[in-house]
Predict the 3D structure of the following.
Amino acid sequence: FVCFVCLCISRLSFLRFPPLFNPKQRSVMSIMEYNGAAMVAMVGKDCVAIAADTRLGSQAQTVSCDFEKIFQMGPKLFVGLPGLATDVLTVSQRLKFKLNMYKLREEREIEPEPLVNLISSLLYEKRFGPYFVEPIVAGLDANNTPFVASTDLIGCPNCPDDFVVGGTSSEQLYGMCESLYKPDMEPDELFEVVSQALMNAFDRDALAGWGGIVHIIEKDKITTRRLKTRMD
C-alpha cells in the first residue's frame, strides 16, 4: 500500500496545476462589449416604443454622452443598433442605402417585417466576418399593428409579442421588462415603463448609461423624449 501511494504521488508531481488566482492573467472582453449599450423595444396598445442609452465608451472610459444608436428608417419605423460603434455607423449607412434602393424599386415605404428580412440578409452575407451589431426593429405596419423584433450578429431573427432587448445591459433589461411589462399599455404608460426599465437596467451596468432617448411611435405621430440620468 505504501509503495502504491508513493507511485501515485510521483506521477502527480509531474502534473502542473494552475493557481487559483493569477494576477498576470487578464480576462478577455467580447468585442460586443467594447463600446457598451442598453436598448429595449416594447409593444403597447396601438403603439410601440424603442429606447436606448446615449453613452459611447472605450471599455470603462467614457468618450461621449450623445452617441445616436437609434435610426429612423420610415415614417413609423425605427432600427436600433447596439454593438461596436464603428459597425453601428457602417450598418446604419448600408441600411439607408438599401432602403433608398427599395423605395426606388417598389415605390413605397418598407414594412417592419420585410425590413427584418433585409437586415437578416445583410448580416448573414457577412457571417464569416460579421458586423458586430445586434439590431432591434420597432414600428407599426400598414394596419398600425405594433411590431418588434431583433436579430443576432449573423441575422437570426426573433419576433416576440411583447418586448426585445439588446446591448451589454441585456440581463438587467430582461429582469426589469419582465417585472414591469403588461399588455395594452397606453402611450404615456408605455413611456414610463420603458424609461424605468432602461434607467434601472443601465444603472447596474458600468458600460452603459449617461442619458437616454425614447421614441414612442403611434399611428399619427412620433414622440421623442430625452432622459436625464446619472452621469457617474
In short: Helices lie at 2-12, 85-106, 112-124, 170-180, 187-202. The two ends are 64 Å apart (CA to CA). The mean pLDDT is 89. DSSP finds five helices and twelve strands in the chain.
